[in-house]
Design goal:
Layout (H helix, E strand, L loop, with lengths): L8 H9 L2 H14 L19 H23 L3 E5 L3 E4 H6 L6 E6 L5 E6 L1 H11 L15 H22 L5 E6 L12 E11 L2 E9 L23 H4 L6 E5 L6 H6 L16 E5 L2 E11 L2 E9 L5 H5 L2
Antiparallel strand pairs: 1-6, 2-6, 3-4, 3-5, 4-7, 6-7, 8-9, 9-10, 10-11
Helix pairs in contact: 3-6, 5-6
């Protein structure tokens, strides 16, 4: 293996400092020379593979349709939300593209992840006016919400959440209204999210905003991604299943010579000089997660767990 660096300092500097126009020009030249070359910026990491972006946009379009239907039902008014693009961007810079202070309606999952509708103040004020029985033709104001307006939009988020969860199939358990930034449980400032600019039509006015979602919610699972029974382990569940994990059953007793070990051939069994009831550990990536023993029931061997990582023994629980 070469002892030199993988990238020369000038190569690193060029990647970190390249401007958008320069990157696009370089991509055009690379594509003409070799269609397989793809420009990648270390400053703008992506969370969704380029060939899955069209699928992610369709997912956001379905979320927009569900959000539109729930807002229309709750506000008893006609409005339309149109998705006009898709990109991957860090949460902080994405919201900074909207007039500050951005008004953010968030719909969150239990642990982390979710979706949010980030609006310019004028658009949010139109929703407030509709919620209070008006026609939604608010003035073009750029300001933060009053306490009353915050309460109205907080209540609107709470009312919309159950229906939005049903229509999208996303397990949304709570909502939140705020300004300027996304809730930290949805995305930190530097975290990459899926973003779609949206056009919101209320009455005879057209307003703007952003519909955002955590990347795991924009991935449509295919058959190879699914387990026989789908487990809900949070927004990173599908991604976590792809992480390679080495599982090894380990006997605490038993020895074998190196000569015997190397003489083993495919299909041969290695017998240990230990009883069948010898304690057995199950290790994941080298860490013991379960301990127990093999028991036989009707001639079938079953691993019965006696200890589980993170769980105190029964005797320890009884002590005060």
């Amino acid at each position: 293996m070469s002892k030199g660096p993988l990238l020369r300092p000038e190569e690193v500097a060029s990647v970190l400092s390249v401007g958008e126009d320069t990157a696009l020009a370089a991509a055009d030249k690379s594509t003409s020379a070799n269609a397989a070359v793809r420009t990648y910026s270390l400053r703008r990491p992506v969370a969704i593979a380029p060939d899955r972006e069209a699928e992610a946009r369709k997912r956001l379009e379905r979320i927009a349709a569900g959000l539109q239907a729930e807002l229309e039902r709750e506000l008893e008014a006609t409005l339309r939300i149109e998705v006009s693009g898709f990109l991957q961007e860090q949460a902080g810079p994405a919201l900074e593209a909207i007039a500050s202070p951005t008004w953010v309606l968030s719909f969150l999952m239990a642990d982390s992840g979710g979706i949010a509708l980030a609006l310019d103040p004028a658009c949010a004020l139109s929703l407030v006016e509709l919620a209070l029985g008006g026609v939604g033709n608010s003035a073009d104001e750029v300001r933060g919400p009053t306490p009353l307006e915050s309460r109205v939009l907080t209540s609107l988020c709470e009312t919309v959440t159950p229906g939005l969860a049903r229509s999208t199939g996303i397990v949304l358990t709570r909502s939140e209204f705020g300004t300027t930034a996304l809730p930290v449980t949805l995305a930190m400032r530097g975290e990459t999210i899926g973003v779609s600019p949206v056009r919101i039509f209320i009455g005879d006015q057209e307003r703007g905003g952003l519909l955002v979602a955590t990347p795991a919610l924009l991935h449509e699972p295919n058959e190879r991604d699914l387990l026989p029974h789908e487990l809900r382990v949070g927004p990173l569940g599908i991604v976590a299943r792809k992480i390679p994990i080495t599982v090894r059953p380990v006997l605490r007793a038993g020895r074998v010579s190196f000569a015997d070990l190397t003489a083993l051939k495919s299909g041969q069994l290695l017998a240990f000089d230990s009883p069948e009831t010898t304690p057995l550990e199950l290790r994941l990536n080298g860490a013991t997660v379960f301990a127990g023993r093999v028991e036989r029931d009707g001639g079938v061997g079953t691993f019965r767990i006696g200890w589980r990582r993170g769980r105190k023994p029964a005797a320890a629980k009884e002590k005060k």
